[in-house]
Amino acid sequence: MNSLQVWLAIVGGLVLAAVVGHGAWQTRRAGGKTRLPKPSAADAASPGAPDAALAAVAPQPLHQEPSFDPDHAPTEPIPLEDAPVAASVEAIEQRLVGVPAALNVPVRRPAAVSRIDPLIDAVARLVPEQPLSGETVLAHWPPSRRAGGKPFLIEGCNSQTGEWETPVAGQTCSELRAGLQLANRLGAVNEIEYSEFVQIIQRFAEPLSAEAEFPDMLDVVARARSLDRVAVHHDAQLAMRLTARQGQWPVSWIQQHAARHGFVSGPVPGKLILPGREEDAPPVLALVFDAQAALAEDPDQSWVSEMSLVFDVPQTPQAEQPFNAWCASGQALAIALDADVNDDEGRALNAGAFALIREDLDGLYAKLAEYELAAGSPAARRLFS
Questions:
Q1: CA-CA-CA-CA dihedral for 291, 296, 300, 301, to nearest 10
Q2: Where does this protein have compositionally biased stretches of type Low complexity (predicted)?
Q3: Quick one: how far is CA 167 from the chain centroid?
């Protein structure tokens, strides 16, 4: 056998081996494909039953019932990506019914405009010699609408509609009125504040050729003190203190976890707020922590060990369930940040405490409504401010 025949034999052997190998690879490839079994008649009749093959590989969800019980709290803080998106309050008490399973960010609506209310205002009339244009009224508008610690409002009676409203350019006012708020959280109007109000309104009325009529000072002060007593006995601001169990939290971590539940930056450093359903309305909740830590250049290197979740009761309507939001937000943050939950005096808050708080709130809401100061109403927001 010459060399040419030897090379041809070698090449033929290689080609034969390649053909055999390719056939074996194709057979193995075809055998490696597993078909999902077709559903049986019984399976087809039960569309809700999961496919057996999929159920075998489907991940099983991890469920942990949220609780304020420190014995069942996680030993390590929950990372942001693993933190619960929303917390149910069912673990607090079965009586807390109707609690939302999530803290959804609501669609916001325009806020009600503050109006003079004889219930909480001392009202002075300003009667001009002739109707006044909005431009004329605004040209003599008082530079400050406060008398001491009390705000006041000015309204005009629209000559066309007869409605009381804030004067605007292009409209005509047949009459004006000014209302001094009788009380707020600083206390009742006193004689000095009322005298200052009278002087401001008289200076406002003179260039408008309007005659000002004021209620009697003694009557105003007496009404103010009576209203202040009602406010003092029916005011409530609840604070839930969250304290780190282990070490401290970076400010950035607090901000990230709070943002997951709808909180945004507040008007001052160290204050995150949960906005209300109305534009420019007071916040439903406020999460407050050290302002100096919040001012740090690097929030990852600024640490705090305590913060407070505050609920200003008279500022939000009961129908919006602010108490449920307070409980759910506090519970979610306590779980995510591994925090103890106490009241503002350091006493532990448990399921029974929250149930009692709810009962007290229901009574408070009813009392406020009796006085025509329902929580979240413009009058209540002004009085409890």
A1: -100
A2: 37-51
A3: 32
Highest-confidence segment of 57-66, 99-108, 204-213: 204-213
Gap between the Cα atoms of 310 and 200, Å rounded = 37
Q: Which candidate, 114, 69, 43, places its Cα nearest to that of 378? A: 114
- Can you give the pLDDT at residue 141? 96
Q: Which helix (H) or strand (E) holds 212?
A: strand 210-213
Mean pLDDT within 26-31: 43
Strand 285-288 with 303-304, pairing: unpaired
Q: Report H helices in the chain.
A: 3-31, 41-45, 52-57, 134-139, 191-205, 217-233, 251-260, 291-294, 322-337, 351-370, 378-383
Mean pLDDT of the chain: 79
Q: Which domains does the chain have, with CATH numbers?
A: 80-103+235-383 (3.30.1400.10), 121-232 (3.30.1400.10)
H, E, C per residue of 9-32: HHHHHHHHHHHHHHHHHHHHHHHC
Check pLDDT > 60 for residue 36.
no
pLDDT at 13: 56
> For position 350, what pLDDT does the model report?
87
Quickly count helices (H) and strands (E) in the chain.
11, 17
CB atoms within 10 A of CB 41: 6
Give the Cα-Cα-Cα angle 18, 20, 26 (nearest 5 degrees): 100
CA quadruple 224, 156, 126, 209: dihedral, nearest 10: 150
pLDDT over 80 at 28, yes or no: no
Rounded CA gap, 22 and 107, in Å? Answer: 64
